[in-house]
Design a protein that fits this description.
- Four copies of one chain form a homotetramer.
- The first copy, chain A, is mostly helical.
- Chain A folds into two domains: about 70 residues, Homeodomain-like (Arc Repressor Mutant, subunit A, Orthogonal Bundle), CATH 1.10.10.60; about 140 residues, Tetracycline Repressor, domain 2 (Orthogonal Bundle).
- Helices cover about 80% and strands about 0% of the residues of chain A.
- At the A-B interface, α1, α7, α8, α9 and α10 of A face α1, α6, α7, α8 and α9 of B.
Chain lengths: ~220, ~220, ~220, ~220
DNA sequence: CATGAATGAGAATTCATTCAT
DNA sequence: TATGAATGAATTCTCATTCAT
């Protein structure tokens, strides 16, 4: 019924507002630094609402992660499957990971915090979802090896280099200009153009690294 | 006087114990997650001692970073200066960064946390110390360009890729074996050998990326 | 009208479910420990229903007491009036009090909680109902004294001993077997038969205590 | 050293103040009704002090019970052992139980609340202490039976009647005068003298009940 | 130099109660 | 009549920090 639909929507709206606010706050402040109060205020709901709808702080945190992680992997796989050659797929993978980071900077931060904390807050469900991402790389590499385009390489190593570079690039954004200004005081203050080209650089490097003739 | 010496020693001992404990706790729990109580306990000193010797939580945090960062830059520079060619220097730089991460995992974690937090806790003094590291890269690259060995490249880009890869490699250590087991269940459980070879791979890649003929 | 009848029935059903659930929860958790939520859940009605039908927590509590106490006094009086002699009446009184406790253990618990709390939650209406019970004892004793069977005794004293004994007997039920096992470990584990005979013991004792020749 | 003694005293003083206040508040308000805030205020210490010294609410509650229960049993046993005959011992037992209730009304209330709650808060240590009390009765009865003075009776039954009567007497104190006024409006308002004689009445009754010729 | 005692200012969590439909 | 949604006002608990010795 329309009535029920409206009701459900109302509920879902609250949950959505909470999850969005929580994502933002957890990302910027970290789990321990985040204040339930701040999340509620930012969500525009009463603090008790969070407990009513979701539960305690930890449950909220996991809900946030689950909520946003959900379709990452699916989206990534879709993007890649639209490409023909392993090289294209790998290139797309790198661009997609970077795009996801750009599109969901908060999520990226949360993920890194999790890594640093030793993955203590992720439930096993999330761990699996991480695996899926690496598996996508594995599939691409396997296909490349089969077709004689790539040398046999550890997918986790590729994933590490790609993601690591992009993450650090992403993370250093806020201090980028300061750093660059400190490094060469003569240059125009906000020329960070060199950086937005990190993605093609990474793409090129990785492809080069996988060339069969490249003896490791 | 001997007396003063003993006093100073005792004092220094306390400070050292505190800083070591704080490093550990800050690294594993993060700034907000760290408890002064826990640090004091781990240091084997009274909680008030920390305030007496060092100051409040933030001061302690910055002391920890300052304490441990200092050596880093100096050590790095020394290592590098012992090498002759820019290539060797760059190779050494990469190996050294990796070695530092291995030797001081706690520090590495703190640094990443700082990045994720938007560098809010670093005092300006610390910021400068970060610059020093990038400057070392800059010097190497400048020398390489001068000698016609490297193409002109953004030092921060190189630093990002090197450090990013190594960091992620370092961070994923705890879940490495789980991940690998999940990826290829057939393989022997603890074969992480492929990973300790990440350093030479990064070295080779970066050198290749800097070749003058490499059009970007 | 039939319609009104159905409505009233439905309404009464809700009220009944609420009062029953509330009795249970108040009895086991106490007034402060009882949660409106728990009562609603146990009653199978919405939480708001309680406020709609009965009122706030205190009103609910008093409704529970009123609801269940009413029967008690009326039932007790009926039982006793069916007996001829004061001795029989007193004996019946004791047996009835015990039976009521057995039949309505939750109510018993609530009453005791009230006593311990200094009778703060009872409204004056409830207080009167307590009086009625003691008045029943008073009437029996007065009749006995009139007929020369009992010595003049404080009805409240008799009430206290009878009810006190039976109450404690009732309350210690849950730990009875544990206690007895602890006291004589040799005996068969669940022989609590001695206890169900507390009623005749109390009856005999009280009758004896009221003998006119018994000098106090 | 004197120094340490003073320090320890200071700590103990705080603990004592807390436990005393907690006893009072728990007794009057019950576990759920008691507010940590109220306890702290009554104790004249900071709220955090309670957590620092003792722990959370439940720990405080158990500390209170343990603290006060401790020497009850010992005290009782001492009183009784000073008497010669089983009758005297039993009489003393009854008087002592009543005296303890009078001297520690708060504790008595807590105990009863515990009974009503099904002994859920008592730790096993406390349970044992309850046993000890009943064991004291058991010893008296055994001695009486041996000497041919008492008929063989369940000690728990005697304990139940004695304690039950005294408890109810104790509990009804606050409403006593109101109740009596309601029962016989003609009598002088505050003549509760008949009640303070409940102890001898109980003593007489119990002794009578245990006479060997009394067939149960 | 060192520390055990103490606390104020918050933070998480709960719960009776009301609102809107 | 009935209920799911929502919340304000506590309440428990924590933690960085200071005090007194």
């Amino acid at each position: 019924m329309a009535d029920a639909g409206i009701r459900t929507n109302k509920k879902d709206q609250s949950i959505r507002k909470i999850l969005n606010a929580a994502l933002l706050v957890f990302a910027t402040q970290g789990y321990d630094g985040a204040r339930i109060d701040a999340i509620a205020r930012k969500a525009g709901v009463n603090k008790a609402m969070i407990y009513y709808r979701i539960g305690n702080k930890r449950a909220l945190y996991q809900a946030v992660i689950h909520d946003i992680y959900q379709d990452r992997a699916a989206h990534l796989r879709r993007e890649i499957q639209s490409k023909a050659t392993p090289e294209e797929k790998l290139t797309t993978y790198i661009a997609s990971v970077a795009a996801i980071m750009d599109a969901h900077p908060h999520f990226t931060r949360i993920m890194i915090r999790e890594m640093v904390s030793g993955w203590t807050n992720f439930g096993p469900a999330i761990f699996e979802e991480v695996c899926v991402t690496v598996k996508i790389v594995q599939e691409i590499l396997d296909e490349g090896v089969e077709k004689g385009l790539f040398s046999k390489t550890e997918p986790l190593a590729i994933h590490t280099m790609v993601t690591g570079s992009l993450i650090l690039n992403h993370l250093t954004q806020p201090v980028r200009s300061q750093l660059m200004a400190a490094l060469n005081p003569s240059a125009p203050p906000s020329d960070t153009s060199g950086f937005n080209r990190l993605v093609p650089q990474v793409q090129r490097l990785v492809i080069a690294a996988l060339r069969p003739e490249a003896d490791i």
